[in-house]
Design brief:
The complex is a heterodimer of chains A (about 160) and B (about 425).
Chain A (H helix, E strand, L loop, with lengths): L11 H10 L6 E2 L4 E8 L9 E9 L3 E7 L3 E12 L2 E6 L4 E3 L4 E4 L5 E7 L8 E8 L5 E7 L13
Parallel strand pairs in A: 2-11
Antiparallel strand pairs in A: 2-3, 3-8, 3-9, 4-7, 4-10, 5-6, 5-9, 10-11
Chain B lengths: L10 H31 L2 H8 L15 H12 L2 E7 L7 E6 L6 E5 L6 E5 L3 H9 L9 H22 L19 H26 L6 H11 L13 E3 L16 E3 L8 H10 L6 E4 L8 E5 L8 E5 L5 E6 L5 H13 L5 H28 L15 H17 L1 H25 L1
Helix pairs in contact in B: 1-4, 1-5, 1-10, 1-11, 5-6, 5-11, 5-12, 6-9, 6-10, 11-12
The chains are: A mainly beta (about 160), B alpha+beta (about 425).
Amino acid sequence: MIRLSRPAAVLAPLGLALAVSACGQPAAEAPAVVEVTDAFCRPTQAGRAVTGCYMTLTASRNDRLVSAAFAGAERVEIHEMTTTDGMMRMAELPDGLPLPAGEAVQLKPGGNHIMLLGLTQPLAEGERLSMSLTFEQAVPYEVNVVIAQPAASPASHSAH
Amino acid sequence: MSGATNAPLSGAYRVVWRWHFYAGLLVLPFLMMLALTGGLYLFASEIDDLAARPLNVVTPGPERVSADRWVAAARVAADGQPVAVRVPDRPDRAVQVVVQPEDGSRRAVFVNPYDGQVSGVAGAPLSDTFKRIHSLEIFGGGLNVVIEIVAGWAIILVATGVFLWWPRGRKGGVVSLSTRDPARRPFWRDLHAVTGIFAGGVIVFLAATGMLWSAVWGDQVMGTLRAAGLGRPPAPAAQNWEHAHHAPTPEGLGWTMQGSVLSAPESRLDLDAVLATAAARQVAAPFTVNLPSRPDEAVSVAVRNTRVEDSRTLYTDGTGRLLGDIRYEQYGWAARMFEWSIFTHQGTQYGTINRIVMLLACLAVWMMGISAMVMWWKRRPTGRLAAPVAPPGPRARAAVLGIVLPLAILYPLTGLSLLAAVAVDRLWRLVRRPAAA
């Protein structure tokens, strides 16, 4: 049988309930994150120390791809392709590549891309390299990039 | 110590009192917990909105960016599968994208709809914790049956309480206090009785409607009604409706429609097109867009309504093509009644008045709980439980059975717990008798 020494004992479950309710997860400010998918670099052509890399970048907050770096290349540039008067022009983006929040920004053959210049050794299909990406907001990101021809690029993981 | 009653205590009175005492002793802590969490839940939207500041406050811009960008930004921020999008009714509030990471938890990602920027990520809102304590779900799945038993006993408490309150020629303590001196027990008895008689009806309503959520009774009743076609309409495309065994429960589909998903053949998802369809059909925010977990499932747009009459769910395929538009008018009578009871239980059906009445009932439960404890404390003999003694006689037993039996039959779990209580009571008296003699 239940035996209570004092009325306060009846309140014990309530105290417990209050204690539990206090552990509700508070909302936290989200850090800027950039998702990188479908990253690949073309294999180098014989005798050339240059190649292009492609990927899809989606940012959680308005961001900017400021720079990319690869240990096996002298320089890495972010290139923009523009068409003026029917002419395709390639130019380095001095301020980096804008990444509007939630927009899947595609770097793709024939479009914007990352250029590896002065490669110390050729890149063969099937190999992998590690490239580090620096953003204006998000923390620097190390991407594992496969060396592949565009046709053989990995299937899209995006939800669209 | 003399009671407040002038009439001599009849056997029936004493046996009902005894049951009232035991029922109260067992369920009072739960009832006070229910009143506390329920009372807080009445203010769920305000509390959650406040708790999410400043992440959920945005500056309205000229126009919204593509909804697909909200979802993509949220997916990136929370690293999981987007399952729903909550569109607010206020222009200065963030959209919430519900994202399910691999661990199966659910996070709400606040996204500014005007620029697609994620402002923050939150777990379940505080109100969800209130709700899960309210249902005891937070302490484990099976404990939900306890709430069903408690609800049944709450009705028994009100019924026996009314019996005890019945004036029988008394003048004081009926609808007003007979004394204003808190040092005296009659003050607490009157406070208890007067509060009870005003709040009793609401408490019975809350207990009876709360049962609809419960594990055994609620499930049985709702299952039967749904099977009888008295719930929400199973159309528009009956052959496409299936019971969702694996799919998580979509948000806001309402009680009677839970477990139903509509299949859509289209696999691509264009959220802007879905929202355009909702706007064209004049679906008013706030609403929740449930994103399909499988490509062949429909998108549902469920209005987050506060009144049952405003219930509405739109179904589209991934391209926004309308598959169904289910409104309150199409509900069966059972769905109308039960969902009305739920909105009323939650204090939203009739606006502010509704909320005030429910809040007062919560306060009344606490007032009665405290006054009950004070009463018991003031008349306690040392070292004993101080339950009213059981009077002999079949007539006394008939009085309590008349109150309790119908409820025990209506609510089987309550009935079972009642049988257990009777057995313990018998056993106790058997053990005690030789010692007392």
